[in-house]
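Field reference: sequence -> structure
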Amino acid sequence: MDLLGKALMDYYRGQAPEALWSHGSLGDDEEVPVSYFFRGHPQMPPLEQKALEHCRGKVLDIGCGAGSHSLYLQEQGLACLGLDHSPLAIDVARQRGVHETACENILDFRVGDFDTLLLLMNGIGIAGDLAGLRALLKHLAGLLRPGGQILLDSTDIIYMFEADEDGGVWVPGSVSYYGEVTYRWSYGKQEGESFPWLFVDFRTLEEEAALAGLEAELLETGAHFDYLARLSRPAYENRA
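Structure field:
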């Protein structure tokens, strides 16, 4: 059930959208304004703006949604392909003017040779868990040209857990890493299925990136445990 895509399409068509809610396993239920997915560059958070400044060459916008980032990059003269697994989101992105799109799961997408892979709005969360992150980074590295980069933002959600007197943090035993959570969408009276999502701290990201042959760089930190990172594929690789 493509509830997010339906909400995007309803908004784009000028219909009064129902309330779109995100329900998290940590009790972080939140109403999400659909208009947020249609924001222009001035309304984007500073980390997103900074990420767009760092884009170069041929760009793959992974999880492009309604296409706001792709549209901005096109305006800057960059070749950008917007990718999303939601058919309705891709339809909206196309109608808004995104020139190149693909409706596909990123793990099934194998057309490589990109200079920049863009995963914003915690797009790396599609990995689901740490095991999925390792597989995803290895796949993404194969889509990059030598010297290419992955730009992503995420959040260290350790602040959401209670600390004991010794400074340790209590994490539910049902997960292997505290950043592994689940979400589901609800839109109007419709309820979506739960899906896994990952928030990864930079140190863990750096370790997993190294296993995929990528070098991690912390570009900027945000106001609330969020950060922007670049993962780079070496320009010259030892294939011995």
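Note: The mean pLDDT is 93.
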